[in-house]
């Protein structure tokens, strides 16, 4: 019996030493768990994944970008046409103003001479003469306007060909 008690004591001491060894080994597990499960602040992704994402994003955005570009080009063309029309109109009005200043004074003087020279008997002729002169002015303006419009169209044609 004494040998079995001695054997039991040696087993217990071996078991105690094993427990202390295991305890010292296990006591560090919570820290190891925390170290091994670290949080990644910056996740690294392979370049192929990035390229695939870029291509898919480009494929999604390409139609929208093209549509917006077409709308912008159409609006710019519209503004250019409007600018050309305004330039032509200003040229026409400048031409009318310059013609009015030079021709208006001459016409007024000639009408005054006719009215003074004819007296009361030529009232009908004077009115007819005034109407004819006004018609001539209107036709002159129409010819000038059509000339400016043709020059503008030629300019637009040259710009569209270029």
From TrEMBL:
Domain of life: Eukaryota
Main localization, broad class: nucleus
InterPro entries cross-referenced by the UniProt entry: DASH_Spc19 (IPR013251)
Pfam family, any one: DASH_Spc19
Name the UniProt record assigns to this protein: DASH complex subunit SPC19
Family per record: Belongs to the DASH complex SPC19 family.
Compartments, as annotated in UniProt: Chromosome, Centromere, Kinetochore; Cytoplasm, Cytoskeleton, Spindle; Nucleus
The organism of origin for this protein: Amylocarpus encephaloides
This protein's GO CC annotations: DASH complex; spindle microtubule
Alphabetical UniProt keywords: Centromere, Chromosome, Cytoplasm, Cytoskeleton, Kinetochore, Nucleus
Lineage: Eukaryota, Fungi, Dikarya, Ascomycota, Pezizomycotina
GO biological process, one term: attachment of spindle microtubules to kinetochore
